[in-house]
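WARN no homologs supplied; continuing
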Amino acid sequence: MPRCKSCNNKFEQYQFLNKFCKGLDCQTAKAMFLLDKKKQQNKKDWSKEKKERKEALKTREDYYQETLKVFNEYIRKRDFNKPCISCDAPPLTYRISSGHFHPQGTYRNIALNEDNSHGQCWFNCNKNRHGNLSEYRPRLIKRIGQEIVDNIDMLRNGTLKLSIPELIILKEDYKKKIKSLKPL
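OK structure emitted
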């Protein structure tokens, strides 16, 4: 015989899988239990609906910012063991950021270009020296070559406007690339 979930007395089940006996207090506890269970389900349903509504309200800019965030994370992990692109500070002695040679706010068409973005010390070069571009360029040429740097210079004045599906695919591609990198 099962025990009542409320009073812990043994009782004969009057319904299949019933967990409460027929006592008044136990039936009240059963009602409260079922009410709590219903509230939890409603809360879960509302969370799901709210997530769907938020997703439906997203703009292209929201998708772009999400993709840029994942892209920057990839650059930080890719260049984790490399010195700062602008000042050659040794790895692990600075907080790394994703430094764009041509600023991503101005040149959005190449903001998601891996050749335009490299690991950079966050506080010294990226924040205080606004990218330290005078030192960035020669080291960038040394790292990726003059031809690629010239190509980036040419691309910066072009136009590129990715659609929402393209941004979603790009974001997922960078998530996969992050997973494929060695863990830190």
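The mean pLDDT is 90.
OK
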